[in-house]
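Please fill in the sequence for the structure shown.

STRUCTURE ENCODING:
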């Protein structure tokens, strides 16, 4: 099918709602049996582009950025863990966890896209950060995930050290911000309309159904 539904998912690998949204979207696509009719591309968005490589304690971060207390954070994480169970994803939130810089992760996601393994790497990075408590700004950890999906770690390392590749990520982020995107997840549909936030499976099904009907007219 040449006129596939094109979905650009703007997200960050440290965004829990991006996990929930994608897993629900994936469920909708699978239940409808339209995997061959949808083309997904992950687009970079850094929630904290100026975060130093050593990161920031998560409790300090949510208090500084959102004004949240430790108790509010614990309540929100308990809710997220329940939502994760509903989509078969494990969130492990512990005090001492750090918010980290994600630019290198986005560089490697662009690299993985060339081999058709972008979604596979994205899910590996989600799991590494949220389920396994790994530091996804650590290049050694990132390269281990690259090897796990069968890509060349040496080539990936060269890309990480290439300033042009890093600038391309910054430029792509600026492109989406200039389009008015300021929060994630945001799904840009067929490069024309957008859907902000994590939706229910039923909402995704209805949107996909409408798009399929448009394609056959």
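FILLED IN BY: designer on duty
SEQUENCE:
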């Amino acid at each position: 099918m040449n006129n596939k539904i094109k979905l650009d998912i703007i997200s960050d690998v440290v965004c829990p709602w991006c996990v929930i949204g994608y897993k629900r979207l994936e469920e909708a696509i699978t239940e409808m049996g339209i995997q061959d009719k949808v083309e997904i591309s992950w687009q970079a968005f850094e929630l904290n582009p100026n975060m130093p490589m050593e990161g920031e304690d998560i409790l300090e971060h949510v208090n500084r950025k959102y004004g949240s207390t430790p108790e509010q954070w614990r309540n929100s994480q308990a809710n997220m863990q329940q939502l994760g169970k509903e989509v078969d994803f494990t969130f492990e939130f512990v005090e001492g966890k750090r918010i980290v810089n994600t630019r290198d992760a986005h560089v490697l996601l662009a690299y993985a896209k060339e081999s058709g393994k972008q979604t596979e790497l994205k899910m590996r990075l989600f799991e590494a950060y949220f389920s396994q408590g790994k530091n996804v700004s650590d290049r050694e950890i990132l390269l281990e995930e690259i090897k796990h999906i069968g890509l060349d770690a040496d080539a990936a390392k060269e890309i990480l050290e290439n300033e042009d590749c890093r600038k391309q990520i910054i430029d792509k982020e600026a492109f989406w911000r200039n389009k008015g995107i300021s929060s994630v997840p945001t799904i840009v549909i067929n490069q024309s309309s957008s859907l902000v936030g994590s939706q229910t499976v039923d909402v995704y099904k209805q949107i996909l159904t409408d798009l399929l009907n448009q394609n056959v007219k």
